[in-house]
């Protein structure tokens, strides 16, 4: 049974606060690219725009100074997230999992209802380094992950994500480090692959 997520993860902040598993050296030169995931290039300009969107939203927040101070690695964290998104989305495609617009709208409404409303959700995502116009994709990726878990179980889904990461030959610009496909990002040993920033602390049956 697929369990639908309705609250933000209590571990998400710790996930993003931990240093991503990007080490000090790169693999292949890709001029203009922050990373290459399969045939998809994440350009430096795309990454910079995502970061700029977050910084603009942070500056507009009453907690702007604190948010900025708490996101000193925003560029690297954002790149890790963009790579993760592509891996989860590809794993979904490869395994017959997709998210409809209706499902995404329902998920957004449920998350807002469970977390104090739209403004509160925007603030919580912003604290995780996700701008308001980036929330829907975060939720969509989390739904894909939830459906994979429901279809295969968490352990098998972790294996699928690692296999997908390997098959996409993720290559990161040396400026940002080297991708570690075994874990996907810095996480505890109990949860070796990503749980999106939209993952639920409280699950309930669909």
TrEMBL record:
Coiled coil location: none
Alphabetically ordered keywords of this record: Signal
One Pfam entry name: SurA_N_3
TM annotation in the entry: none
Signal peptide region: 1-23
Protein name listed in UniProt: SurA N-terminal domain-containing protein
Organism of origin: Streptomyces roseoverticillatus
Highest taxon in the source lineage: Bacteria
Gene3D superfamilies for this protein: Porin chaperone SurA, peptide-binding domain
